Amino acid sequence: MTIKRKIKIMPLVIILTLLLCSCQKNIHTELFEVRNEGIALNGDIKEQISGVKEKPKASSKTEKKEYEPLNYDEQKAIWFSYIDLAEFISGKSKSEFKESIGTALENVSNAGFNTVYVHVRAFEDAYYNSKLFPKTAYLGEKTYDPLKIIISKAHKLNLSVHAWINPFRCGTTETIESLSDGYIIKKWYDDAEKNGTYVVSVKDDEHMWLNPAYDEVRKLVADGVKEIIENYKVDGIHFDDYFYPTTDKSFDKSAFEQSGKNNLSDWRIDNINKMVKLVYNSIKELNKKVMFGISPQGNIENDYELQFADIKTWCSKDGYVDYITPQVYYGYSSTSPYLKTIKRWDSLKTNKKVKLVIGLAEYKIISEDEYIHNKGIIAEQIKDAKKLSNYEGIAIYNYKNLFSAENEYSDRVESEYAYITEELS
User: Fold this and answer.
1) What is the C-alpha separation between 84 and 82, in angstroms, rounded?
2) Exposure string for 185-198, b = 16+ CB within 10 A, e = fewer
3) CA-CA distance, 50 to 414, in Å (whole number)?
4) CA 318 – CA 158 distance, rounded (Å)
5) Across the strands, what pairs with 86?
6) Contact 125/208 with Cβ under 8 angstroms?
7) pLDDT at 44 over 60
């Protein structure tokens, strides 16, 4: 009787033992996956161990939020030239610069402006931290960042900031020779094949110039723009009318001969168009809402014959500019009469995506008779600009002449200031 019971019990003991071993294996596997001490297992290895396919984890890396530019349907802009900035920066500490530029921007805001075109590179010298271009000599040994301060203070006043660049104008031979060997322009200058082709001296001009004929030069211009947008919350990029510095055939003779083209003017225009389109595309790849504008000469014939600037294409086709600010620096009785000139620009601007902003020469109220003797002339020009079918803003050159006039002109400037601010309000 006892022996039979033992025989019946034995199979049950064996089954329970096997089940217990199986459970232990599962426990050890689960603990290994959870603890994961010392070894980071990839998904394939974990799947082999557990038999369970791992679900992909959500990335913990947060994407950099794209800056939302501050721009206005109607630009009321003023140019801050490098001459303006030089007075704020030269010999000034960071705190002194903050105070002076802060006051200047408050002046601009109080007058009714909503946009500032700030010169950040006038001679391939940077008023910001750059790896591509040397800092401006006006900073001396100072290490603060003027552009960063300007943007911070301007945005607090709801002022849109457009970084103003001269794309091709360089410093003198002396300033280039003093540069560190790491800068691209210095490398070109020191290269026997590129000095005179990429970087060119011009008769009766102390500055050297970059030659738009070369892909590498155009790329440097675009890379310089990208560097600003990647590191600063600018609302726009602004070029003025410095493209080709001369009509002299010797300026780009070698490149033209190598091009195989037979019309120098058309070829130069095409070079500038390539640069403009490259800059536009570079901006939009980084932030579609950052604006790109160009301020060509007000004289349309000069744009083509002297600057090789294809303003008709820029005003009519997509992919070149977001706004055009012709420098219509003419009086009503000028050889290029103001009214006739702005109407020509109005008819040129056929692309609805391109804004027309009329540039005005406030500085002439102390230098030209028609401006001197006609109080309120700038305000009158603003009124006439507003009558254009394509009007979307005005820009006034420049800060110093409107806000820091010399004493002998102070009464005339104050009078004009009153008319301007009334029209901007």
Assistant:
1) 5
2) bbebbeeeebbbbb
3) 83
4) 29
5) none
6) no
7) no
State which amino acid sits at residue 381: Q
Of 37, 111, 21, the closest CA to residue 423 belongs to: 111
User: What Rg do the C-alpha atoms of the chain give, in angstroms?
Assistant: 32
Q: Which amino acid is at 402?
A: L
- Token pair recorded at residue 217: 């030069």
At 305-332, the pLDDT tens digits run: 999 999 999 999 999 999 999 999 999 9
List the structure tokens of 36.
Answer: 């994961």
Cβ–Cβ under 8 Å, residues 84 and 398: yes
CA dist 19 and 397 (Å) reads 90
Amino acid letter for position 79? W
Instruction: Grade residue 5 by pLDDT with cuts at 50, 70 and 90.
Output: very low
Q: Is 138 helix (H, G, I), strand (E, B) or coil?
A: helix
Three-class SS state of 395: strand
- What's the CATH fold of domain 75-424? TIM Barrel (3.20.20)
In the chain, where the domains are located: 2-50, 75-424
CA angle 138, 216, 133 (to 5 degrees): 15
pLDDT digits (tens, 9 = 90+) for 146-174: 999 999 999 999 999 999 999 999 999 99
